[in-house]
Amino acid sequence: MTMTDTLTSDVIGRRVEVNGEHATVRFSGVVPPVAGHWLGVEWDNPERGKHDGSHEGTVYFKCRHPTGGSFIRPNKVNFGVDLLTAIKNRYVLEGELEEEEEEEIVTIGNKPVETVGFDSVVKQQSQLSKLQEVSLRNCAVNGAGDRGGIAAACPNIRSIDLSKNLLSSWDEVVAIADQLRRLEVLNLSENKLTFPSGSPPPSGTFSALNELVLNRTGITWAQVLRCASGWPVLEKLYLESNDIVISERPVDVLQTVKVLDLSSNQLIDENQLLLIAHLPRLEQLILSDIGISSIHFPDAGIGCKTSMFPSLQYLVLNDNQISHWSVISELDKLPSLHALSCARNPLTERGRDAQTTRQHIIARVGQLRTLNKCAVEPEERRGAELDYRKAFGAEWKAAGGHQDPDRDRPSADFLAAHPRYQLLCRKYGAPEDGELKTQQPFRLKNQLLTLKIKCPNELDQEVVEKPLPESMTIQKVKGFLSRLLKVPVAKLLLSYESPKMPGREIELENDQQSLQFYSVENGDCLLVRW
Q: What is the DSSP-derived secondary structure letter of residue 78?
């Protein structure tokens, strides 16, 4: 952009870069008594400025922050380059440097022919036309440039990263995307964009767009819904850090979205989430760091499934304010939930043993197959549910629970606090009095288990009883049995059976886990084979 261009009035609202810092032009003109032309800019980083847009009592422009503004000479400001220039700077020059190292003379017949010049232009063109993935983060891109230029040079771009550039309006984005008919992935994060006030007219501009990243762009929920009519096949939408408030229900838009990221929008609460609860294909919802403390599905009673979020498989609730188990129990109502991440919440951080907390979450949410990105194996679920059943057994009994099904009437309060408890009693049997006495939820002393040791394949080997600490790892148990039975550790295969579940054998396959992890109890029988 030339100097004379920068002095015209259409410079207002333009995004600029000055010594690595980004800003928006809010004023262009004279600032007496100093001679010459000035641009008034509002910095993205308010600490970079000196004032609020006024000088010696005169207000030239307004800033959101009292030190967000500066006056700068136009020749100090970078207005950026159009997209095609940025692509050539990034991709062609790099390619040419490689080509210069190659042999530039080829032999046709017996005559040596120089291929520099025309040939490198052809190479440049073929290089650009082959481009499918383009990354132009922080390359000062300001718009589409000459009409049709992008379509002619790079028609095959499918994915483009335009984060942290100088794009100032959604219209400029449309002008770029209009020439990229195969565009599937578009990242516009950290561009401060102005969005159209009305719904854009129907067009095929984003007809192939599958993934759109709009983190830190200043977009509002109403603007998302207005623009979304132009994203007919969008599946992934990222809206992190925009101070979004979900103000209305999406009607006829976002119906194809499978992944929605609303992280770090601190104004979102549980009532707003109900407005997006009926997006039919939403499989993954990311709600990290939104400050949420409770979630409730009012349409479903205890032990029932909600009609909300019908397709939701993966929910991320990291870095929030969840401190009550009722929130975790509520998640059991989601019909398709298989994966949950809820790290760094008061509930999971509060001086509790991480393993116990994990077991309680698994026991409360019956369909979980992954928790905090770690698979929930069937034996871990079984152990977690048995432990949970025992840990709250005394409370269950005090609330009216009973081993005799006809007399089993736990209170409504207990069932509200432990919605899956009755189901676990049906699955494993009601807890017996003997279990309740020995069980405190968080034991301090390490219990000794008296276990029978049986070798099913060795008929002359007697069954013996041995006391073993419940914290003993399977590896150490194998070491002990190796000495006892005079068999090399590497040959030993361990499993156990419990009189509570006759005929069922559980393998102890992970050497690093403890007997307690596998819910081995007093009186159980270790089966040793080699």
A: B
Q: Which amino acid, one-letter code, is at 452?
A: K
Contact assessment for residue 9 and residue 28, using Cβ atoms and an 8 Å cutoff: yes
**φ and ψ of 139, to 5 deg:** -110, 15
Residue type, 126: S
Closest residue by Cα to residue 251 from 222, 272, 284? 222
Please name every residue paired with 517 in a beta bridge, in sequence order, or none if there are none.
none
Query: Cβ distance 421 to 494 under 8 Å?
Result: no
- pLDDT tens-digit readout, 461-489: 889 999 999 889 999 999 999 999 999 99
What is the distance between the alpha carbons of residues 174 and 169, in angstroms, rounded to a whole number? Answer: 9
Q: Which of 75-79, 237-241, 388-392, 447-451 has the lowest mean pLDDT?
A: 447-451
Q: Which CATH architecture has domain 448-529?
A: Roll (3.10)
User: Could you tell me the two tokens for 138?
Assistant: 């922080």
List, in order, residues 6 or more apart from 143 with CB less than 8 Å away.
82, 83, 167, 172, 175, 176
In CATH, what is the architecture of 3-76?
Roll (2.30)
- Phi/psi for 211 (5° steps) reads -135, 130
pLDDT digits (tens, 9 = 90+) for 404-428: 989 999 999 999 999 999 999 999 9
Please state the domain extents for the chain.
Answer: 3-76, 391-438, 448-529
Q: How many CB atoms lie within 10 A of CB 279?
A: 23
pLDDT tens digits, 266-308: 999 999 999 999 999 999 999 999 999 999 999 999 889 999 9
Separation in Å, CA 148 to CA 87, 152, 155, 175: 15, 6, 10, 10
**pTM of the full structure:** 0.76
> Where do the DSSP E strands lie in 84-227?
105-108, 111-114, 133-135, 141-143, 159-161, 185-187, 211-213
Instruction: Determine the 3-state secondary structure of 232 from DSSP.
Output: coil
Collapsing DSSP to helix, strand or coil, 223 comes out as: helix
**How many CB atoms are located within 10 Å of the residue 381 CB?**
16
Mean pLDDT over 33-48 rounds to 92
**Any idea what DSSP says for residue 264?**
T
The pair of structure tokens assigned to 382 is: 């079984």
Closest CA to 46 of 80, 74, 70: 70
